[in-house]
C-alpha cells in the first residue's frame, strides 16, 4: 500500500467507510483487517489528489452521527417514560464507548486535519475570542456535542425529574440498589459530554442537574429539620442531624461529581444547623452547666461547621469554668488554705483540659477560653481595691513542698506537684509579688536549713527560669549558689585553722551571702556584744576571709544565726538548737542561776525589741522562769532547774522563724516600691526612644512592657508619669495637654 | 539601673508673651530718678530690696490690701521671684516697663492691667502659671506648693473669673489632708481642668492625661453624688411608708 496521495472516489469510499462506522458505533464486530482498511481510507480521503476530501468526510460523518443519535432518541422514547432512565443509560453506555472507538478510527483526520486549525489552549483560556461554532471538532468531541444536542436537550427535564426522584427515594431508604448505578451513570454523562472542553467544562452538569438538585435537597432538609424538631429533644436532634450529614456525604460520593460534595454539605448544614442556630445556642448554657459531654461532642461538631456557630459555645465554657473556679476559691477556708487553693486550681484546670481534649478535640479556641477563665479566677480580687493573694499562696505552697515539713510524700510526688504548680504560676498576673514572697521563703529555707533537698530547690528554680526567664530567677540562683559555695568555704576555713593551729573551742560553720541577692532587710539589725565563747570564731573567720578576699566587707547577721547548746545542769543532758541571741542569754547563766533583765540587756547590748522577743521565747520554752508576768528591766530571770523534756535533742527556734503579718505587709510594700521604680524606668525608656507620645499610647506601651511581671493599675502609671514630670524627665508638650515629650 | 532618681535644676521659664498696649495718648517716658526714689522710700533698711513691711506700706499708699488681685498682677508684672520681696532690679525694671514712675500713675494703671488680664485667656494663663512659682518657698527648696498655700493662691488668682468648680475643689482639698503638696503640673493642669469640666463632672474622662489628683477628686464627688441619690431614694421610701 502506498502512502502517496492519489485520486479517490469519495462516494465509493464513504459508502464502505459508513458501514464500518455504523458497526463501530453500535459496538458490533469489526474484523481487524476491515478496521485497518478503513483506517487507511480515512488517510486516503484526507490526502486525496487533486483536492483533499477531509472537509467532505467531516461533514458526512457529522451528518451520519446526527441521524444516528436522532434514531437512538426515538428508540429511548419508544421504551416508555417509566423506563426512561434505564434506556437512556443503556444507549449512553453503548454510544459513549462506540464514539471512543470511532475517534480512534478517525485518528488521521483528528491529528492532521482538525488539530491544526484548532485554537491553542492559551488562546481559549486567555484570549477574548468566543470559539467559532462552525469550527471543526475532533470526532470524539463531535460525537459528544451531537449527543448533547440531540439527546440530552430534548430529554433533560424528564431525566432530571427522574434523577431527583431516585435520589429522594434513596434518602428515604427506598432506593433500589440496581438503579444506583443507573443514576450515577446518567449524572456522569452530563459531565462526560463536556469534559473535553478546556473552560467551564462543568457548566452543563451544574445547569441542568446540580442547581435543581441543590434546590431540592435544601427543601428536603428544611422540612426534615422542622419534622425532627417536632419529635426530638435537642440531644436526639443533634444525633439525627449528625447521622443525616454523614449519610448525605456518603450519598454524594455514591451519585455526584466530586465538585458538588461541599455544596451539598453546606446546604444541609445551612438548613439543619444554621437555620436553627438560635435553638441550638439556647441549649448550650444548660448543656455546659451540666457538663453533658455526649451532647457537647455533637454540639461542637455541628456548630463548628457553620459561621458564627462556635463563639457562643466557647463563651459559655469560659463562663462556666470561671464560675466553677470562683466558687472554689471563694469557699476556701482553714489552716492550709494555700494547699487547697493550688490543688483545687490544678484539679479544675486538669478537669477542663481533659474535657476540652475529649469533647472539643483539643480545639485551640477552647484552650484559650480555659486560659482566660483560669487567669481571671487566679487573679480574682475579692475586694477590687486589694490585690489578689494568689501569688503569696502559691509561694507558700512551694515553700510547704520544699520544706522538711512535707511529710508522708515521696520525693517523686513532691517533684510532680512542684512541676504542676508551674501551671498555676503561668496564670498569675502579679509575678513580681510571687517573686518577692518566694525569695523570702527561699532565704529562710536556705539559712535555717529547712530545705528537704537541694536538688528539689534547684529543680524548682530551673522551672521558674524556664517559665519566666533568667532575669526573674537571677536572685534565687545567686542565693542558691551562695549556699553551695559556702560548703567549700567552710572546708577551707577548717584547713586554715588547722594550719594556724587554732582551736575555736566550738564547731563552727558559716554562710557568706551576697548582700544584693538576699531579701534580708536591715530592720532587725541590733547592736550585739558577741559572747566570749563565740568571739574567737568571729575574729578568726574575719581574718581568714579578708586574707582571701581583699576589700569585701562582712556584716554579721547574728539574728539569723543559730547554735546548739548542751544543757548539763538538768537530770538528763539535753542538746537544744536555738538562735544566737537566745544562746547568748542562756550563756550568761553559766555561773549563776538568776539574773535581772537589765543586767542581761546591758551585757548583750541588744535593743529592747529583740531582747524582749527572745526572752519571751525562752520563757515560753520553759527553760527560764521569770519573777513577773511582763518582761520589765527589773524582772528577775531564773534557770528552770526542774526542766524536763521527752526528747533530748530539740529546737526552740520555730516561733521566731514564723512569718508574721508585718512581714507580709512589708513584702507587699516592697513590691509596690519596686513597681514604681520599674514603671518610671519603663516610662523614661519609652519616652527616650519615642521623644513624643500621646498619653494613651504611653499607657499602652507601659502596660505591654510590664505584662510579663505584673499588671499595673492605670492610676499607678499615672502617678509615675506625674512623678517624672515633677522630676523633669518628661514634660507636657506645649499646647497639648494630652501629649508628653522627653526632656533630654 | 533605675533612671528615676535625680534632682534637676528649675526649668527655664517659658518666654512671656509679648503684649503691646495701644494707647491713645503717649505718656512721657518715665523718669528713672523718680522710680529709684520711689524704691528708696519703701526699701528695707538692711537689704537692697522691698520686704513685707515695705510692700505693705506701698499697698496702703496705693489704697490696696496686700491680698488683692491687683497686687498679684503687680507682682507678676514686676516678675517677682518670690512673695514679700521686690528686689531693686525687679521693681525699677518693672515700673519702667509699665511706664509709670509715681504712686498716682501706678494706681491708675493697675485696674486697667487687672481688667485686661482677666479678659485675655493668654495673659491670664501666664499670670496663673506665674502664681505657682511666686508661691513656692524657694529658700526651703520647695518643689510643690503646700496644699493650704495652694488653696489661698487659687482663691486669689481666681478672685476674678472664678471657675464654677473651684469651691468644690477647695472643699475636697480641705477634706483630704493627706494631699500635702500640689506639684507644678497639677497646678498648671487645674486651669485646663476647670475649663474642661465647667460645673459638670460627668464629662470628665479619666482615661485622658489628667493628673491623678483630679481622678481622685472626681471619684470622690461622684461617690458623694451617688450617696445623695441613694439617700434621696431612702427618704422617698420613708415618705411613702
Automatic annotation (TrEMBL), chain A:
One Gene Ontology term from the biological process aspect of the record: ubiquitin-dependent protein catabolic process
GO molecular function: ubiquitin protein ligase binding
Taxonomic lineage: Eukaryota, Metazoa, Ecdysozoa, Arthropoda, Hexapoda
Domain Cullin family profile: 389-619
Protein family membership: Belongs to the cullin family.
Protein name: Cullin-2
Subcellular location as annotated: Nucleus
Species annotation: Gryllus longicercus
Keyword Acetylation included in the entry's annotation: yes
Lineage: superkingdom: Eukaryota
Database matches in Pfam families: Cullin, Cullin_AB, Cullin_Nedd8
The entry's keywords: Acetylation, Isopeptide bond, Nucleus, Phosphoprotein, Ubl conjugation, Ubl conjugation pathway
Main location: nucleus
PROSITE patterns: CULLIN_1, CULLIN_2
Any one of the GO CC terms: nuclear lumen
Pathway: Protein modification; protein ubiquitination
